[in-house]
Amino acid sequence: MMSPNKIPRGRPQTFDREKTLQTAVNSYWADGVEKVSINDICKRAGISKPGLYREFQSEDGLKSASLEAYRKIICVPFFEILKKDQPFIDGLEEVLEFFNREKRYVHLRDCPEGCLHLDMFHSRLDFGTATAKKIDDLNKEYFEQLHNWVDRAKDLGEIQEIADTASLVAFISAQFRSALCFRKTGAASEEIEKFLRLGFRVLIK
Length: 205
Fold this sequence. Notes:
There is one protein chain. It is elongated and about 60 Å long. It has a single domain (17-200), classed as Tetracycline Repressor, domain 2. Helices cover 66% and strands 0% of the residues. It has helices spanning 17-31, 38-45, 49-56, 59-83, 88-100, 116-122, 129-155, 165-184, 189-200. It is built from nine helices and no strands. The model is unreliable at 1-8 (pLDDT under 50). By secondary structure, the protein is mainly α.
């Protein structure tokens, strides 16, 4: 029979994994991964450091899990737009709404600005093995989705074939990344939309 004073092993029943991940994602996203410590996450989530390590094994494990959570929140809905069987111009309008956050994707309005994946990609060499792999996998998925989107539009004759697919993908990605940077510096949604429309004008037939 276990002593009443003996603490049972294993993860405490009060540990909330989803709340911890949400806290970590928002903290990394808003403040920058390099500026947020494990102690910061524990304090903001109201958890103990041993509890966090029991759940995620390491800081690398937490950051990798946080990027996967970000992928589900932001990247998967964006990829779903690109995969839709619809005209390129309709997909572009939906992409603009996704960046706007004031219309169809209003539930994203309170999310931090910028892109957590992009920020982490720029500091990829500073992360552990699991996080670096997650960064690379998401980057590969992102470019594959853009590549498929452009190829489908080219096959249907919906965009100008002014360059090969790889170059068009690089151009589009640059537009998206610039828009994210503008949002992070406080640019208005209307200005972001104007910027993207101007960039895509050279592609639309």
